[in-house]
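Inputs:
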Amino acid sequence: MKAGKFIITFLVIFLAIIWLMPVYLMINIAFKPISEINVGAYISPPSNPASENWLEAFEALKTSLLNSVIVSIPATLIAVFLGSWSGYAIAMYKFAGSKTLFFFIAIVTYLPYLIFLIPLVKLIVSVGLFNNLLGMIFAYVILNFPMALLITSLFFQTLPKELQEAAAVDGCPPITFYFRVLIPVSLPGLTSAAVLTFTNIWNEFIIALSLSQDPLTRLAIPTLAGLRGSYAAQWNILMAGAAIVSIPGIIVLIFLGRFFIKGLTAGAIKE
Amino acid sequence: MLGWSAIVSSMKWIGMTPIWNFAGIYNYQSLYNSSEFWLAFKNNIIWLIAFVIPTGIVGLIMAYLFEYVPRKLSSLLKSVFLYPLVISPVVAGVVWAWIFDPQYGIASTIFSVLNVHLGWLGDPAMATFCLIIAGIWQELGFALVLYIAAIGEIPREHVEAAKIDGASYWAIFVNIVIPEVGHATLIVFSLLVLYSLQVFTLVWVMTSGGPGTSTEVLPYMMYKVTFDRLMVGQGAAISMVIFAISIIVLIPISISMMRRWMS
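Outputs:
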């Protein structure tokens, strides 16, 4: 078994190195001048690390990075707040049809959201929020609400029933109970929902692409996609841009990775 | 919104403003007769086979191998497979578009040293498979963490007892792990199928459906038909096709989740 374990560990490390290659290449190229890339020096570290690519990419992205922050943070908070309220109702009060309701929420959570693209764009246009950050917040809240609901309600299920019973005996109304008791003990569940929702929204492409045509209100991801046209063969600048927009996701993984995994496996795994 | 789409899919709506001219099943009929639709459909099936199955199986095998990786290393290694999930598919698309670029890409550089000259993203027969590799790179971590969690749920005694009996790695995998992670298998494979049904961004960023229309998939065609050609009725019809396929995949997992959680 000992030798077997060693070989397995070696194999997994080998695969992990392959998995890291794309991001290594991305960062490596982002530090190189185009002259070095054109001669095929991809893998060797940059002889003279340059920050110009990063500055140029940042310059092209900065307005839309700010837009992404303005959209993704409020949309995450609202979606998780509304989702957790409804998740709480479903998990705590077993009413007739709550099973069916849960079934439909699971369906809506995992339906490809592309199906809602056409009606959603028409809706946003008709309420006059096209090319408007508010329109995107609204769209992302609608699209992420079911997932936030699902994750939080699964979490609330794991809480002991006695918690609520004790509160009811003490005459604690549901709203007070929610804020005073439930939120503090459910912080891990709420964080999982928030982390997953935030990365979804930050990285999302097609909704962001379809809800704004204006460079002033475009989000970071569609702007990066657009750079592929404007910097056609300048891979070094593109790679710097790609690395910059990846920072929030990587930060989330480093500091909140545990919650990210919990959110991903919610529904599949019982505590 | 779904009902609205269903209604629009039976309208002859072309252009920016709604046109409520009832067209019955006209939009579906013209899809049925369109070779572009069947090409996109075929590409979705290629994704189904060449993306879903390898990702799911490799994810399961890797999750099992992780059982034997020293604990100190395993959370670090897990993050390596997870990071593609927290970066945007646009980022993945940009990086992999460069890797498989026929002119500047590292794949063509390496292979031309070996005197093998391939078309990569420029080759209609190969381009979809290049996209699929990017997809596998991005989604493997998802299958991996779900399976790691599912394997973690297997009662330790089962595995330990088998080890004492001198069962091989392979025997433990086949006789204990595979049967006991059935629930996770249903979820992993269903969600990977759903991923393959909405693969849009990688296609948009890496090939724009090209060369020609060779890498188009249903979601990409839906977007193009709706927002470039402004044939909204037809686009809605494609989205209803995606919906119909998705719902077939979704009903079993939703039922099983409901059973598991509301009992």
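Remarks. Chain A has two domains: 1-50, 52-265. Residues 52-265 of chain A form a domain with the MetI-like fold fold (CATH 1.10.3720.10).
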